[in-house]
Amino acid sequence: VLIAFGLSAYLTLALVFVHYLVDHHRQQNSVDRAILAAVVPRKLTLQTPESSERWTRAFDAAVLFLGDTQIVTSVAIILSGYIQLPCGLSAYHWEMIVDLAWFSALTHLTALTSLRHYFRRRPAMAIWRVIFMGVTLILLGSALYPVGYIPQYYDELEQPFNDPDQTYPTPIHTEAAFTGLLSSPAICLMNSRRRIELAVTLGSLSASAEDSEQLDTIPLPFNTMLVALSLAYFAVGYVTRVTRLFAPLSDRANVWFRVTPVNLMCRIYEFTARRTPSSKCRILWQLWKGFWLVCIVTSEAVYEIVDSTIWEIAWLAAALAFGTLRLIGHKQTSSPSGENTWGFGQELIDLAISTGSKDL
């Protein structure tokens, strides 16, 4: 499963990048035009408009197929995880499901950006994909919460998670308790009392902590940074891509966040330039005027870079790298015994990949 997810995601990244090269005739951003003109060899950009249009249509279909595969897969895998929760799905497998769904959903977001010209001519198709991504965002937001209670690596368990004023020991302080937590039902992490009872069951809390009143007051470790960054990365990506997917929203956002602030800074600069300060304040006045000039130029440069397609591709590459490192880290440091053995399923996927590569 991990191999299939990884190959699909990186294949989508490759197609999005090639689509960026062949779709040069529709690139209006100055950063994209500069990169295509100066960095990319002329032969790779397919400079003939007719040939570029043919290749664009072909890559539109390919990126659309892979993007739809990613969103359907992300919704399916996270829904299957929710369905399996009452059946005793382990915390380790719940974390893997959430990571795979997050990984796949981010890939689809960048596919949406690559196809925004395609979807602007087909708003009905765009609306359905926005709805699916909104459902995925809600499911991932709720699914990430229990993941925050799962230590990422065993080395982290040496840190004192509990409040120093508490007399209780660290909730998870041994390798056996850590392994037991990963193998425990993930549904236990979704309720505060069940989390404490799980820690007691694993032998991590003292017997005196089993009192019902004390159980509700024991602080447990929560990886706020991981959950907040993962959710914010996906939420910001969703909002920005939905905004750029529809022309009216994109134009309105450009006025609010680019045109209006820059015009305000320009008016301040013009007002400063028209003033004639006294000789004592001339140096400070020139510095003040230079400050606003730098703000104007920097803002325009930042807006232009963030609005470029190459920025979207770099955003996806960074997300894939982060997700890949997390998955590899989980497999190497947190997987239960037997999870990393090479069995029939891995051989079957390897055979399928080899056969597909031969056909290509």
Protein topology:
Elements: H1 2-22, H2 30-38, H3 49-84, H4 91-114, H5 116-120, H6 123-147, H7 175-183, H8 192-201, H9 212-215, H10 224-245, H11 247-274, H12 282-306, H13 309-333, H14 344-359
Helix pairs in contact: 1-3, 1-4, 1-13, 3-4, 3-6, 4-6, 4-10, 4-13, 6-10, 10-11, 11-12
- Encode the helix/strand succession as letters: HHHHHHHHHHHHHH
List segments where confidence is low: pLDDT < 50 over at least 5 consecutive residues. Answer: 153-171, 204-217, 352-360
Termini separation comes to: 22 Å
Mean pLDDT rating: 75
Let me know the number of strands: 0
| Number of separate helices | 14
Structural class: mainly alpha
Radius of gyration based on Cα positions: 26 Å
Portion in strands:
under 5%
Main sheet makeup: none
What is the approximate shape?
Answer: globular
Helix content: over 70%
Quick description:
The chain has 360 residues and is an all-alpha fold. It has helices spanning 2-22, 30-38, 49-84, 91-114, 116-120, 123-147, 175-183, 192-201, 212-215, 224-245, 247-274, 282-306, 309-333, 344-359.
